[in-house]
Amino acid sequence: MTARNVTALGSAYWLVMLGGFLEPVLYLFSIGVGVGALIGDITLPGGEVVGYAAFVAPAMLASSAMSGALAETTFNFFGKMKFMRLYDGMLATPIRPIEIALGELTWAMIRGSLYSAAFLVIMVLMDLTTPLRALAAFPATVLTGFAFGAAGMATATLIRSWQDFDLIGSAQFALFLFSGTFVPATAYPEVVRWVVEASPLYRAVDLVRGITTGTVGWVQVLDVLYLLALMALCLTVAGRRMNKLLCK
Amino acid sequence: MSSLIHARGLVKRFGSFTAVDGIDVDVRPGEAFGFLGPNGAGKSSTMRMIGCVSPPTEGVLEILGMDPRRDGPAIRARLGVCPQLDNLDVELTVRENLTTYARFFGIPRAVARARAAELLDFVQLTERADSQVEPLSGGMKRRLTIARALVNEPDIVLLDEPTTGLDPQARHLVWERLFRLKQQGVTLVLTTHYMDEAEQLCDRLVVMDGGRIVAQDSPRALIERYSTREVVELRFTADDQGSYAEKLSGIAERFEVLPDRILLYVADGDDALAEVHRRELSPASALVRRSSLEDVFLHLTGRTLVD
Amino acid sequence: MTSVLEYHLVHYRRTWRSSVLSTLLLPLLTMVGFGLGVGGYVTAGIDGVSYLDWMVPGLIASTAVQTVIGEATWPVLSYFEWLKVYFAQAAAPLRPADILGGHLAFMMFRVLLSVTAFLVIAAAFGTLRSPWAVAVLPISVLVGLAVAAPVVAYSASIRSDSYLAILIRFAVLPMSLFSGVFFPIDSLHPVLRAVAWVLPLSHGVDLSRAATLGVNPGLDGLWQLLYLLVWCAGGWLLALSRFRRRLVV
Ligand SMILES: Nc1ncnc2c1ncn2[C@@H]1O[C@H](COP(=O)(O)OP(=O)(O)OP(=O)(O)O)[C@@H](O)[C@H]1O
Ligand SMILES: [Mg+2]
């Protein structure tokens, strides 16, 4: 399965992939550096003070792990399932749907991990984190990718038509804006704040930010458990729904 | 000016490839004129030149007495075009496809609405008028494309393979509608690779192959000239039909040995078949039929038309 | 040309709902989430105005660009490659210029729609500081066309949607992020600043900012207007030659 996906790449696709990596970097420079110059330093919930770019960078990293995983799973997965009938062909061989799904997920993860690693290198070069912290943050981004990859697959099994991608895209953008990415969750009014705190992207941002800024505490353990639970839940849903959709 | 479409030495090249290689055509008012030929013969390329969306590379082309190179929009205003592949707007309703298209011809909105209703009735799509085009069957889409081609009450209707891909019932419905149009005096120009379609609809046709015209006349005259009255089709069980050819010599004016059968061109099929049996050749199956354009094409090019 | 515009409007009647999300809701979310959220931390404001007031006009120009990008990429590609809508139009007595012009006119209609809505909401938030803010409408149309025309030319030149993803990631997104919408481009590296000046959006941002803040853009403003017109004209010629190439073969 993974091998199939790699061989399907053309040269244009590599540019698209590079673009996927470029996106968070552009945001980092625009918002982190450009707007950061207007903001100066920012105080973390624990009281530590960091530069705005160092605050935004881990959020961009977590968001791009999310959007990469979602794009690869929802869009491709839905397309293949609905229109290319690729899975139908594969199902004729003795592979269970969930194995196919996991193959897909693995592919999405390899790609996403490459992006994350490259982004971490940039963070180190810009002195936004230390090499050791970057190394420690890498598995956290992989976990983020898996959690959202699973969420994406579960979503893909629920999509009715291409129009639903507008909804997914908008939801994704809202998450991107409001998940403590650009300002700390404490900046929001009390009610909004708790909604933000409960959102999966916020937990991922909190985890990665804790590691890259060196402010890890018990909350980050909670983040890890949250993401693991999300992944398990979504994989179960995806497996069930796929069986229903494909093995009629 | 007696012909609506007048072409002399018409050539269309794509790069170094010649798709239409110097054809002469005259289409007279009120007739149904056909281009018959296999895949890649250059039928669509010719139709697109006539439709004034593809400038001729060389040669003379006059449509309705005008020059497509100069008067494209003016000519297109009086043409109706049904392209080989439907290009309806599948997101609009059936009716909207007609009304919006009518507006491209500067037809006032009220007139467009009335005409759309008439045409939907004509192609029997009134019940689906307000449903989206996407879920319609292939035959319905084709009928809608034909209706769209009629929305400007054209002098000439160009139909590129109007019934390809349709089931027999849908084809007959389309034929019947086209026949009515012809009776109303509309000039039809169509392409096809179906013999029966050409025989049913065309007053005159040209047989095209490899960008050239290999024969031109009415279907009847072509059959008389290039074929015999009847044809006997024989199938032998042996892999090599050719090995029987010798044993059949003398029975027919002419044979065609195809991979799966042998065709005998004869004046009287039953007589010929009796002779075959007398020679104890015992084919697995035998069929006597009237000669058709298929046979004309086979004779002219040595190939079958639909593979 | 008007009949082509009419066709797109009929079409839009069926699809406007999903476009509301991307062309109106998302910019509004950005205004709230970014302008208010981040703005709260930009305590000094910029050039003597609050961050929100400063950012909103840029965001409106950027929304105009986003709106036309939505229509000048996928639809154009698919009208050539999959839906063949342009070919159907070319068989009617329309010229390539009518087909292109009608579609561009429709894009400008959509720009007017989303920018008007955005202006009303921005006014409700009290971020428009001058009646000159209505000038944002023609400015948005101008910057919209300056982007739409060359992008249509691009979309008419490609055969696969991978190239659209490339355009959006390598051109549209960088332009949106570095054209002075979120922070002044003066703080950019000189090379990047030059790039931002070459691209059309930064001029649209400057002009609409001058309008909503009620600042006289002076002679510079005139040059920026002219420069945007150059983009419109160049893009139109390019797009028209692409349309001719594709439609007349
Ligand atoms: N735009 C084009 N560019 C290059 N070659 C073309 C183009 N259009 C047609 N051709 C070539 O010209 C030849 C004739 O094509 P045309 O479509 O006219 O054939 P046709 O008789 O309509 O065939 P069919 O029955 O398959 O529709 C083909 O070999 C085709 O590949
Ligand atoms: Mg053809």
Textual characterization of the structure:
Chain B: This is Lipooligosaccharide transport system ATP-binding protein. Chain B: Residues 5-235 form the ABC transporter domain. Chain B: InterPro entries: AAA+_ATPase, ABC_transporter-like_ATP-bd, ABC_transporter-like_CS, ABC_transporter_ATP-binding, P-loop_NTPase. Chain B: Pfam families: ABC_tran. Chain B: Its main location: membrane. The complex is a heterotrimer of chains A (248), B (307) and C (249). Helix content of chain A is 79%, strand content 2%. In chain A, 46% of the residues are buried. Chain A has helices spanning 2-7, 11-39, 52-84, 86-91, 97-125, 131-156, 164-178, 190-198, 200-212, 218-246, and strands at residues 41-43, 49-51. With 248 residues, chain A is mainly α. Chain A is built from ten helices and two strands; from the N terminus they run ααββαααααααα. In chain A, helix 2 packs antiparallel against helix 3 (52-84), helix 2 (11-39) packs across helix 5 and helix 6 (131-156) runs antiparallel to helix 9. Chain A has one domain. Chain A is globular and about 55 Å long. By secondary structure, chain B is of the alpha/beta class. Chain B has two domains: 5-218, P-loop containing nucleotide triphosphate hydrolases (Rossmann fold, 3-Layer(aba) Sandwich), CATH 3.40.50; 228-290, Alpha-Beta Plaits. Chain B is 35% helix and 26% strand. Chain B contains eleven helices and 13 strands. Chain B has a six-stranded mixed β-sheet, with helices on both faces. In chain B, helix 3 (94-104) crosses helix 4 (109-122) and helix 8 (219-226) packs across helix 11 (293-301). The two termini of chain B are 40 Å apart. With 249 residues, chain C is mainly alpha-helical. Chain C has one domain (2-247). Helix content of chain C is 77%, strand content 0%. Chain C contains ten helices and no strands. Chain C has helices at residues 2-38, 51-72, 74-81, 85-91, 96-124, 136-155, 162-177, 190-198, 201-213, 218-247. The longest helix of chain C has 37 residues, at 2-38. Chain C is globular. Chains in contact: A-C, B-C. Chains A and C meet through helix 2 and helix 7 of A and helix 1 and helix 7 of C. Magnesium ion (MG) binds at residues 43-44, 84, 160 of chain B.
